[in-house]
Amino acid sequence: MGGSIVGTGLAVSIGVAAAPVEMLSEVTAAEERGRERRDLSAATAVDGERSQVAPQARAVLEPGRVLAPKVPAGSGEGRRVVFSQSDQRVWLVRADGTAQRTYLVSGSVYDNLDPGSYRVFSRSEQAWGIDDSGTMRWFVRFAQGPNAAIGFHDIPLDDGKRVQTPAQLGTPLSHGCVRQRTTDALALWEFAPLGTSVVVVA
């Protein structure tokens, strides 16, 4: 991560079996409020979280299903992680170019990451922010910032409390890294071993 606290974003799982369209599951407002309460009361929980879809991503195809945003054009080829700074969104992309998963994140409020191609060079299941600014899990580092490494991780905890809510994902709020919902942080951790390509687009 880097700066004081660095982090990631909100989860949206996609199912792209053999269908030509990537799909996302949609949740009701009541389910989202219930999930938010669970997230705040049990920040370490990983299982049971449902996906949330941002209003701008809602393109209803059939009841309970929405169209997932496509992998950005010009974001490289092959198996990779793609982070769009303007969309505040991450894609986990398979070798054939289809998205395995996409979700909203919270990147940095500072202009500390240039668009381009990177590779995962370090990973930590547990990490601490600079100046005791918080703790984070499943930290996957891919770039060097002015003060510390930049990477993906879950929403940091400071004095036992999350520094932002999952509902705020999709907005730049970190001090350097890319914050993700717990389930998404774990998914990226499993998807991106050392050497994995990471492409940042503007």
UniProtKB/TrEMBL annotation:
Entries under Pfam families matching the protein: YkuD
Active site residues per record: 153, 177
Domain of life of the source: Bacteria
Compositionally biased tracts (Basic and acidic residues): 30-40
Alphabetical keyword list: Cell shape, Cell wall biogenesis/degradation, Peptidoglycan synthesis, Transferase
Pathway(s) per entry: Cell wall biogenesis; peptidoglycan biosynthesis
Span of domain L,D-TPase catalytic: 79-201
Annotated region described as Disordered, given as residue ranges: 30-49
CDD domains (alphabetical): YkuD_like
PANTHER family listed in its UniProt record: L,D-TRANSPEPTIDASE
Protein name, as recorded: L,D-TPase catalytic domain-containing protein
